[in-house]
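Re: Re: ligand-bound prediction request (bumping)

Still looking for help on this. To restate: I need the protein modeled with zinc ion bound, output as structure tokens. Inputs repeated here so nobody has to scroll up.
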Amino acid sequence: MTTLTRRQLLGALGAGPLIAAGQLSSPRTNAAVTLQPFSLTDVRLLDGPFLEAQQRDEDYLLKLEPDRMLHNFRVNAGLEPKAPVYGGWESVKTWEDIRAHGHTLGHYLTATALMYASTGHEEMKRRVDYIVSELEQCQRAANTGLVNAFPDNTAQIENLVAGRRATGVPWYTLHKIFAGLRDAHRWCGSTPARRVLVKLADWAVATTKDLTGAQFERMLAVEHGGMNEVMADVYLLTRDPRHLALAERFCHKAVLIPLSEGRDALDGLHSNTQIPKIVGFEHLYQITGRPVYRAAAEFFWQTVTGTRSFATGGNGDNEHFFPIADFPAHLGSAKTMETCCSHNMLRLTRLLFARNPTASFGDYYERTLFNAILGSQDSDTGMMTYFQSTRPGYIKVFCTPFDSFWCCTGSGMENHAKYGDSIYFHGTAGGGRRHALYVNLFIASTLTWKDNDVVVRQTTAFPETGHARLEIVRAAARPFDLHIRHPAWAATAAVRINGGGGETSRARGSFISLRRGWKSGDVVDIELPMAPRMELLPGTTDTAAVVYGPIVLVGALGHAVKPGEDLHVNERTIGTTLNEPIEVPTLAGDLADIPGKIRPTGEPLTFKTDGVGRPSDITLVPYYRTAHQHYNMYWKVRRG
Ligand SMILES: [Zn+2]
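Reply:
Sorry for the wait, this slipped through. Here it is.
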């Protein structure tokens, strides 16, 4: 861990002395934000792959039993459990060392709250309310403010705070419970959730109050999820400066400082330990206006998406960042691209986009959502990936419903419950005189823009076609600007209004802006020409993935297994299962010529190479639709 003297630290921060608890009198909440996301309750998905994924996720959420997830919370509070505990990370000895017990309940609370907001289904809210009432009962019984499900109750969090050797990642796990309560309040309006959350936050303040800055920083060497982000959210609820101060104390200087200076020191670091910290930095920038947070968040995003990501938007191998030159050495791993990392990169991207709505954020969001996230769920079982393997000829491996409970099972429950959260954004232009609607993603959906009395319906079969239609179902009395993303992958974006004139953008990676008075029934058609292209594996000149629009295509290599046979309990042994040797074809020819030799078969998003596959031609299908058969993502391209 980097050690900084106070002088070095203050110099690095470049923004005057750190503000101590209670000294921040008038935080500039959201002062820097340009756009606002819509509430999930304002967006409803229409038919398509995202709605289907959402429905599968909801089915899974309904199969889980809250009392089983609550088992150890009750035990630790001295109450009788109501049902046996679940397996996997929740109770089994194999994973006792990570101390993630109870993380699933936190994710589940977030997921059911998001699902309620996304669908309005009362059963989701009923479950949220039940879990919150149970947690409140546990909190009262334990009488410290802390609620937890750790196997040795408070022992490890006490060790960690006291600077003694501690087992596992207690703050990481507690963060999920904080976040679940926040989301129960945010999306279900639960007053008890807010009450339990604030008491939990007050416990966190009290339990860390005697730590010096150096002791706190040492504690942060252990993975702690998004504690800085969620404490900032608590502060936005309470306006209690102690909560903001704790959020800032949870900012890990050893990561914050180099990033804020534009130094990428990420090699070898655990990827999903870092990304949530950066989400917190950006969130805190939007609250406090401190440039150090902004600089760190922007640089991190640039360096990870620009130099550390695979074609699907995922990153890392065996959960760690590695040097760009080592991409070829890591390609053969079955443990590349942890799904939680993509989940958290999207949370960061969304915050950055709202503050600075440039199309490159939207492009990365689209890429990662349509590939890494949509592709993480098995459409047959609804189960989720942990690693998304780049190993040539490997297969997707999914969790089991009741015996795995990986981190990626938890973040996976959340992923498919919030597809509506980044399709549209709104803001103002012209010094607040004009309203603006941003269409960031092409996903079939209806938007109700309550503040402006506007309803927009987007119908599209994208990515199966490059066409989307926006219909102004209800128009506001006042005009608004409509901004439509022209993705960098499309050479042009043609927009027609009411079947007539419009405009064609040739500025890849921009927004087309339409300013006019809209009336009910107006229709905007968008055409985005899609074509195959090759994207090099970072650090190579002869290894490339085939990408069509934003969609990563993989070779369908057969050797199918039955749905369910690829569900797996232990994420640590991924790569040893379903590991039969598969012959992986190569491509022959000049890299630049190969896209012209990839022909559509007539089936949606299905292609076949024409004479360039060796030893034989290759059928290419979307990564997101691939399951139960072996696949290949990156191709060795040999001349001739
Ligand atoms: Zn994970």
